[in-house]
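Late entry, evening session. Most of the bench is empty. Finally got around to the prediction I had been postponing all week. Sequence below, unchanged from the version circulated by S.P.
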Amino acid sequence: MKKQVVEFASGNEMAVMAIRQIGYDLMGYYPITPSTQIAENLDRLQADADTDLIMIAAEGEHSAAGICYGASVGGGRVINATSANGLMYAIEQFPVQSGTRYPMVMNVVCRTISGPLSIKGDHSDIMFLLNAGWPILFAHSAQEVYDFNIIALKLAEAVRLPVAVAYDGFFTSHQKRRCMRFEQDCAVKDFLGEKKEEYPFFDLEHPITVGSYMNEPDLINNRYQLHLAMREADRLLPALFEEYGDLSGRYYGKVESYAGEDAHELLVLLGSSYETAMEAVDGLRAKGKKCGAATLHVLRPFPEKELADVCRGAKVVLAADRQDSYGAGGGNLSLELRAALHKFKSRVRVKTLIYGLGGKDFFVEDAVKMFRWAAKRDTADFAYYGVTGQKSCGASEKGEEDISGIQTAAEDQGNFFAPLTARRTKLGLTRAEKDEEGKVKVSVGSLNETTAMPKRIAPGHGACPGCGIPVNLNLLLRAIEDPVVLVFQTGCGMIVTTSYPRTSFKVPYLHNLFQNGAATLSGLAEMCYRKQKKGEIPPGDIVFIMVSGDGGMDIGMGSALGTALRGHRLILFEYDNGGYMNTGYQLSYSTPKGARSATSHVGKAQYGKSFFHKDMPQIMAATGIPYVATVAESDSADFMKKAAKAALYAKTTGTAYVKALSACPLNWNDKPATERKVIEAAVDCCYFPLYEVEQGITTLNYDPSANGKKIQVADWLAMMGRTRHLQKEIYEDVVSQLQAEVDRRFAVLKAKTDNPVL
């Protein structure tokens, strides 16, 4: 057994330790809670030169999976981590990788799948991977996360398949436990051995084609080979577990049982709940109850014989699913358990409970209730545990103890706010109209006058002090007197305003995941126009607005560009706070070059973000939409005029795009009271110029050089903690590069203003 040291660490941290010791070549990633810590901690190691792992920040999980696939084909050892809808977004890539037989490892930090949106842990995501051709190891502790990450890579390379390591989000992923890791990296590397490539892609003397077009009869042969590879994984796993046990002193099997040998009631479940169940077993055994628990360490290939053997002696097996396969009478665990017992001719009764969805806590007393429910003969074979406000679908007609854990639901309180009808928002202060030449003329009331506009977003939201999102939204909407319909992409703006059952919105509101908000709004708007045309709803102008952070305009850029190119009549509004703030401030493509973030740390080998900020207004302008504008709260009059102009174009012509620089004191690391000055400085150094592109004609609305307000980019960077380190002499070249790029982009804008044909 190799020497090991003690670590007090979480599951995500133990995954990082394993990844570092393995010495992976590359990671393609996109942050999603609760897997984000893996990329964050690896970036910190990279900044400190403690790993030479290549980390590529994708603009979404689908691309992250593609990056990983390409690197795997190239012969590298590749790692990824994701959760929930990130896995769903990338899912079409997973059968590609297994079908072409390229190994890698992916940590799936299990979380509930939207919608409605929830970031808490259950198993609804990992079950979608069951048919992707990936072996899946399931860890119930932080220690197992470390161990299974190492075992997974050896398995992947032995059978030439990608392997997933799954564990519970926020429970296993974030809770710190006493763990062991190998003291020397060589212990891990020796266990794994050198990577062998049977068909090297870069052997130019023997070129190969990967991913051919394939029909019958070859495709079925391919699938049969995948089947054989999974069978080989099933055969190899016991030997791998044994070999790793000899190395570490920790021996695993496909299935683990606790006090199950003579158990009358056996509770089978996955993940961190297993440890809770073991405590319940101890308590019930002390009272003379013969209870036991079991869990799976291997979800694919499914250990049907081993599980059937564990369950064989029980009177009742209770399968607890943290996921439901709706309409099938249970989740995937219970369905496959029933099939296994039937195959091996077991007559044991199987009951199923759906529990813990959306991260609902699972305590010892919950496990005890489950055991008691399982022991009763007259209870149903299927029910939900922990439903609130209504009877469980498994409730017995004989009136036994209700397993649902019924709580009284809150009474319907009706509307929280009086709806903002057109009558209430038509103040007559804003006028926007086209003249005979097609030019838009706009007039708005004074700042004081427009405060009479009722706020579409109520003050009762959960935004951080100094957050720019509500400020920018209210400025945008203050100048739009028509009724508005809002679609929000996932992000801080959505999270802080719609905590169920409350809402901050006084107007129609819809949320969709942040890669698809623009497309969702285009469908919604077109349906409204159709219903108006058919006379099904009243006629009248409605301004449709999609609201997104800069993160949503990374992963959702394709959707936004498609919507713009189609020319739907709506507004795309982006609040740019320069990072993925909702998940803890990871870099976005709009983060300033050199800025510190959770995935662009500062250390001896890294100075912060390594590439320039994305110029989304120019990207949108290239689609040829009728109106593009940038706005800032430091010039509210300009902001409202542009909002009114965007609304007119959205009602009459096509897509309008408006981008605001939005403050985030928490992650910019400055003070809420200074944010207006920080925003103003960004404008005065020309990092965030105020301009508009109207019908293809660029107009620079503000030139700080003209009134002596021009400052250097370094002066703006010094105002924020995230960029203050760039004042050091060693980063002088980084600041010079950023200054040169800002100057270049501003010169282009001036040239376009002076030359309309540009």
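Two things to note before I forget:
Residues 380 and 523 are 43 Å apart (CA to CA).
The radius of gyration is 29 Å.
Will write this up properly tomorrow.
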